[in-house]
Design a protein that fits this description.
globular; single chain; Aldehyde dehydrogenase family protein; Aldehyde_DH_dom; about 525 residues; Ald_DH_N; oxidoreductase; alpha/beta; 15 helices; 7-stranded mixed sheet; Ald_DH_C; 8-stranded mixed sheet
């Protein structure tokens, strides 16, 4: 719906928020926008590229995209700084990382507002992204000494930094709680850090966070640019000690191919089709709450559940619970408030999601839905943007209402691929074997869940699901602090992360140590 009473308060506008962060970390900005951070210095180098907000199509300013030569030089400089940092005492590393966390916490609200503008996160989700980064790394500050004093078997051993800095190439959806969080732990473990900003969103948030990190003397490099231009420098450079990648299978496959002959330590988190299996189940009231939570951030996260595999005799009860949830999902402009609002963040709307990352992504989802319908899928629910909460006359091209389809055919992309948006598919089965086959349709996933009244039987079924984490009557997520994270099959390559596994992934232990993870020669899974 369009409502002339909605507006964005002046203190929450992009110009107001960026004005405040420019005042906070002015060294990180050129006249038009953020610079690139190389060897501790912010440099106005690169080709300008206009950035827009998915919220309303408005301009966010200019990203400076560096070329391959600049990236190669930056990596070589980062390697020199890495060697110095690796020799820094742990107490000093903890002090500097803690100082950066204090500074990030002081800028928390504006970092969250940047996320709301850059990638369309509603206020609550944006705050959670920043807060989880802070609280998660503080936990590592307290625990890191013990983690550096034992091997993967728990025996006493000294862990040391890698031979070179860790290169970080992450997706746009969780700049703080995934990317900045991982970088700060890598730094805490004694490694220098090289990071690339996503081209689709989050570059301003990452600029501010890295400026606060650099002020504390942390050896961080931050570059903007196209992956195709920078991949050799950030992946294959001999100076790089490890690569941390978060993204889709297509790009992940290209990265894996580039790594194949290098022998580099790597952590490649890739997509998988995360599924719910529903078998001999009756607690529909509880399931309704789970379904609603699943729509957070328009299912634009690696642990979203876009596929439901339902026992035939339960389809009517499932749909009676599921369809009202879709009808009640709230979406719209994340920063649009009633006219009477004084601009307090307490007044920001409690939305389930805002826009998708771009108008192009919204169109891609539409195309995938139409393709599935042409091949025989049955439309169960097709929401309308008319139900969204928007400013009068705003650009809504990046928004996508919930959609659900029954039985997408094998010829359609949605049968095997993660949509990364609010598009669900339902598959009906008659046997447990069918259910397991459909839950394993994407050759590996990060998470999955089974809804069943018989939890012991559910746990036995879970053993046959090719997902890293399988919940019984609950959602599974990436997790925080000491919780491990990884994937099975094609959803993950290299070392697992989370808790102690993240520190092990970015340090060297005793010779011959076999890390937990998916490697060409072996697979080793921790208890999840």
């Amino acid at each position: 719906m369009s409502d002339t009473q909605l507006h964005v308060p002046e203190n929450l506008t992009w110009s107001a928020v960026t004005g405040r962060v420019r005042d906070l970390v002015g060294e990180a900005f050129t006249t038009d926008g953020p610079a690139n951070l190389v060897d501790g210095e912010w440099r106005a180098v690169g080709t300008p590229s206009e950035q827009t907000s998915p919220n309303d199509g408005s301009s966010l300013g200019t990203m400076l995209k560096v070329d391959a030569a600049t990236a190669t030089d930056a990596v070589q400089r980062a390697a020199q700084t890495h060697r110095s940092w690796a020799g820094t005492e742990l107490d000093e590393r903890r002090r500097k990382v803690s100082g950066a966390l204090d500074a990030i916490e002081g800028a928390r609200d504006d970092l969250a507002l940047l996320l709301a503008w850059e990638i369309g996160k509603p206020w609550k989700a944006a705050c959670s992204d920043v807060d989880r980064a802070i609280s998660g790394v503080r936990w590592y500050v307290d625990e890191i000494e013990g983690m550096l004093s034992r091997d993967v078997e728990g025996a006493p051993a000294k862990r040391v930094p890698l031979e070179g800095p860790v290169s970080n190439i992450a997706s746009w959806n969780y700049p703080m709680s995934v990317q900045v969080h991982a970088e700060l732990v890598q730094l805490l473990a004694g490694n220098g850090v090289v990071a690339k900003t996503p081209t689709q969103g989050g570059w301003m948030t990452l600029t501010v966070a890295h400026a606060l990190m650099a002020r504390e003397g942390l050896p961080v490099t931050l570059l903007s640019g196209d992956g195709s231009e920078l991949s050799d420098a950030l992946i294959r450079s001999p100076e790089i000690g490890a690569l941390a990648f978060v993204g889709g299978r297509s790009n992940g496959g290209k990265v894996a191919a580039q790594l194949a002959d290098t022998g580099k330590r790597h952590m490649l988190e890739q997509e998988g089709l995360n599924t719910w299996g529903i078998w001999e189940f009756s607690d529909w009231d509880a399931f309704s709450e789970i379904l609603k939570k699943g729509f957070e951030y328009a299912k634009q996260r690696c642990t979203a559940y876009p596929r439901f595999v339902v026992q035939r005799k339960l389809v009517d009860r499932f749909l009676g619970t599921y369809l009202p949830v879709l009808d009640g999902v709230r979406f719209g402009h994340p920063l649009a408030v009633e006219a009477s609002s004084d601009g307090s963040t307490d007044d920001l709307p409690a939305l389930d999601f805002g826009p998708l990352i771009s108008a192009g992504k919204a169109q891609e989802l539409d195309d995938s839905v139409e393709e599935a319908l042409r091949h025989g899928a049955i439309p169960l629910y097709r929401g309308s943007k008319d139900h969204g909460r928007f400013l009068d006359g705003q650009d809504t091209s990046a928004y996508h209402a919930p959609v659900s389809m029954l039985a997408p055919p094998g010829a359609s992309r949605l049968m095997h691929e993660e949509p990364f948006g609010p598009v669900d598919s339902i598959v009906v089965v008659d046997t447990e074997a069918e259910m397991l086959a459909q839950m394993n349709a994407s050759n590996g996933a990060l998470v999955a869940s089974i809804a069943t009244d018989d939890t012991q039987h559910g746990e036995r079924l879970a053993e046959q699901v090719q997902a890293f984490k399988v919940g019984i009557n609950k959602l599974r997520s990436r997790g925080d602090k000491d919780e491990a994270f990884g994937g099975r099959g094609e959803s993950w390559k290299g070392a697992f992360v989370g808790g102690e596994y993240l520190v092990q992934a970015v340090t060297e232990g005793p010779p011959g140590e076999n890390l937990f993870g998916n490697f060409p020669g072996y697979h080793r899974y921790p208890a999840t």
